Structure formats: structure tokens, C-alpha cells
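Reading a protein record of the kind used here takes only a little practice. The record below shows the convention in full.

——
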Amino acid sequence: MKLGMLVRLRVCVWGLICLTVLSGCLGNEAQNNIQESGTPSMPAAATGSGGGLAPARDKIKIGFSMDTFQEERWLKDRDLFKEAVEAIGAEVEIMVANGDEAKQNSQAETLIGQGVDILVVVPHNAEATAAIVKKAHSVGIKVLAYDRLIKNSEIDMYVSFDNEKVGELQAQAITKLVPKGKYVYIGGADTDNNAHLFKKGVFNVLQPLIDSGDITVVYDQWSKDWKPANALVNMEAALKANDNRIDAVIAANDATAGSVIQALAAQGLAGKIPVAGQDAELAGVQRIVEGTQTMTVYKPIRALAETAAALAVKMAMGEKVIADSKVNNGKIEVPSVLLSPIAVDKLNVDETIIADGFHSREDVYRNVKK
């Protein structure tokens, strides 16, 4: 069975999960990750920030606090999560902080004050968002961390991809092409726990080659707030410090990879030096088929959104959900559901990203001459 067919099957399965979750039925892959105990119960009355009862509602209401729409993928997360929640029969209030830590805290307090039944959070700052968890718990609202872990807090659930695996897939693809040489690592935001997991995965693969002397990491820097402009400054500095003599680059996502390639192009090196990204953003996938970016890591976001939506509704209804994975956030072992990422290059883009409808073939190959 082709990889694309497998991925489409996974997405279909999660669609069924969303349609059946209110009856307490989870199927296929979910059964491998999630166990439930107890019987479904009607949602308890939510409390507002002042501790009083919120107005009664016919539907479960989810508060979705998002960090940013700077990267294309987060717009997809927003739309797919909303679609999944509504397909179940619940409703969602979405707020985005535009990369502003204080604004996200304020927006989360607003959602808590509205008496949402559960709070789903994509944190801007993994550490600072612990205050949101504490505030929500003080009024009996559970918190689910979406894609990014919230550190040093007693969050109730974490749903994401195996982000360490993302970094490993990046490094495996590049070391296969460049087993020896000078490497540059352009990281994401130091405040994002995922950025640390991506990097950890990369160095899981690189470290033995570093120890043997085959690979030397000549530049390694975070890109503040995930901003491509900061990644561009980093890559320009890496090129200058090494007189353009660099053999490979691993970037923390496709947006930072775009800045890497911009810097390489200015030196006439675009397409000559392998570059890895991740997120399967349209611009990144276009660069892959054009030949300037080597690979990306595709994370089927529909599966993530539908899994998170299903779990959020079950938790809001008072059902006990136990995940068979746990991730330490510095304070507790957080119940976690971790989905599998997929490495994508020019050879399998058609049977993965395009076959799944994540991007259309027309869009992906738009800049490729026929």
C-alpha cells in the first residue's frame, strides 16, 4: 500500500472519531494511544473567573488560545480544529495573540471568564503559559496543550506529533546526502519547547558523526520568535563566518528554511547546498520541487486537529481519558498523544502531501517550468 493511501486512511479514521466521540467510541489508531474509564456524563456547569456559574449552554464550548498565524500551517490548524469541533456538535471560541506573550495571557483570561468548558492552548512561551494553566484550574477548567508543550504546569493533556522524531527525520535525510562536512543549524524560538525537541532530534543523529569527526557544526543559533528575518540574519552570519564554505543546513521549520535559502541565493549557492525544513508549508514544498530545498517534514494536521477536538470534548464532558504516552514538562508526567510525522522530498511529495489534499498539485508545481 502506498504511503499516501496510508496517510489518507489515517485522516479518514480521525474523521470517524470526531463523529462518534460523543457516544464514547474511539477507533483504530486512537485505541492504541487512548484508554477511557467510567461512563459518559453530561458536562458540569462551568464557572467564570469570579467563581460563579456561567450561563447554561446546550453545547460544549471550547476556548482555543493560539500563539500566531505567522506561519501558514497555523491557519490550517485553526480551520481544521474548528471544523472538527463543530462536526462533533460543540462550539469553539478562537483567539490569536500574534506572538505576544502578554496578549495571550490576557486572551486566555477572557476565555476563562466566558466560562468555557475546556481551554486548548498553543503556547507562545512554554514557561510563561503555566500561569494560564493555574488560572484555568483555579476555576475548574481543564487545559489541553495543542502541538506545543506547556512547561512546569499541571496540564491535563498534550496532543502533538513526535517532535523529536521530526528533527531525526531532518538529520537522517541530510546526512544521507552529506555524511561529512560543515553543518549549520538554524533553530526556532528558544521559548518554544518544540524548537528544543526538534533540535534534540537533529543532534540525536548528528552527535555520533560529530564525535567521529565526520561532521562539524560551524554555526548553531536560535531564531527569536520564529521570525524569518531573524533566521536570515543568522544564516548571513553563518556564511560570513565560514567564507561561504558550508556543506549542509538544517532549519527548524520551512519559514526559517526560506530565509536560509534567501541568504544562499544572495551568494549564488541556492540549490547547491542541501537544506532541510519542516511543516510542509506551500512555499517550502514549492522550493523542494524547484530544487532549492531538499526536504520537509509533513505532519498531517487534520489528524492532530481532529484528535485534539475529540479529546477536548470528552474531557469537557467529564469523561476520564488516559493516554498511554507521557511527556515530562518539568513538573509532571503529562498524559500525551503523539502522532507520527513523515519525511517528504521531491520523490514522494505527490503520494503524500498532494495525495492527501494538503496542497494541490497545481499550487505545488506552479513555479516549475513544464
